[in-house]
């Protein structure tokens, strides 16, 4: 990896860490950059999972006040995320490499659609909220978090968007507190997948280290000042980078 490639990966890590804390689609920044510097798709995905763990952790720390009294909720939903992340990581290793190459372009396109429609979903969720219900999550929410964990362990782009939509619809809760839980669940999925990959796959430690440093800084920035960034600009960057990733995968 050249100096300029290393700088590009580091900057992508900062952007991904920030975006993940705010809404959750940072993989669409880092993954195509890793492909562009010549890292094979599966290795890029595994290295990305490692690199984004520190950013998720810094986001959780930044939202620690919103998480302070949500221990029971985190235990229930976090267990579902942990199991789902483990299943997703296992699928990434066990399925043929060709399956990843075929599935990921579709997953990226799905993630881009979710990023684009997220504001409309948020408005619809706010309009449908009703008082009452299970304060820690219904079986439907637990199942949804588990399935999202599988998605996150396998690839992960926009898992935060999925979590925000699920919890926004099924919990009667303030959006910032929901976002705090989303960051914690994403951390669990990324961490369990990374731990699994440590023993079962190949990691590009240079790329993972650069993303880790960048995402740690980006996660802290996202927790503090990310809400001031224009959402339209963030989504535009994510969509452009995601389309580049799809094109790269389809042409390779």
Automatic annotation (TrEMBL):
Q: Please give an example of a GO cellular component term from this record.
A: plasma membrane
**Which InterPro entries does the record cross-reference, listed alphabetically?**
TM_pro_TauE-like, TSUP
Keywords attached to this Swiss-Prot or TrEMBL record, sorted alphabetically, are: Cell membrane, Membrane, Transmembrane, Transmembrane helix, Transport
Protein's membrane topology:
Multi-pass membrane protein
Task: Please give the superkingdom of this protein's source.
Answer: Bacteria
Where in the cell? Cell membrane
Show the stretches that span the lipid bilayer.
7-39, 74-93, 100-121, 141-168, 180-199, 205-225, 232-251
Keyword ATP-binding in the entry? The reply is no
Q: Does the keyword Protein transport apply?
A: no
The record's PANTHER family line, in alphabetical order, gives:
MEMBRANE TRANSPORTER PROTEIN YFCA-RELATED, TRANSMEMBRANE PROTEIN YFCA
Q: Name the family.
A: Belongs to the 4-toluene sulfonate uptake permease (TSUP) (TC 2.A.102) family.
Could you tell me what this protein is called? Probable membrane transporter protein
């Amino acid at each position: 990896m050249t100096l300029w490639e290393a700088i590009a990966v580091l900057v992508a890590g900062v952007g991904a860490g920030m975006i993940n804390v705010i809404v959750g689609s940072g993989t669409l920044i880092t993954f195509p950059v890793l492909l562009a510097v010549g890292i094979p798709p599966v290795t890029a995905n595994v290295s990305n999972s490692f690199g984004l763990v520190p950013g998720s952790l810094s986001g959780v720390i930044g939202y620690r006040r919103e998480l302070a009294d949500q221990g029971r909720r985190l235990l229930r939903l976090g267990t579902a995320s942990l199991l789902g992340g483990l299943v997703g990581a296992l699928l990434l290793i066990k399925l043929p490499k060709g399956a990843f190459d075929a599935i990921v372009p579709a997953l990226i396109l799905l993630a881009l659609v979710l990023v684009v429609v997220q504001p409309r979903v948020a408005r619809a969720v706010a309009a449908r909220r009703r008082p009452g219900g299970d304060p820690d999550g219904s079986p439907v929410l637990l199942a949804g978090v588990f399935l999202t964990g599988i998605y996150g362990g396998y690839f992960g782009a926009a898992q935060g968007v999925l979590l925000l939509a699920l919890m926004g619809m099924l919990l009667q809760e303030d959006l910032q507190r929901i976002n705090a839980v989303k960051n914690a669940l994403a951390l669990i999925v990324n961490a369990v997948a990374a731990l699994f990959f440590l023993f079962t796959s190949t990691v590009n430690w240079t790329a993972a280290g650069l993303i880790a440093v960048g995402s740690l800084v980006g996660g802290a920035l996202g927790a503090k000042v990310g809400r001031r960034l224009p959402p339209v600009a963030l989504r535009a960057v994510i969509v452009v980078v995601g389309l580049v990733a799809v094109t790269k995968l389809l042409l390779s």
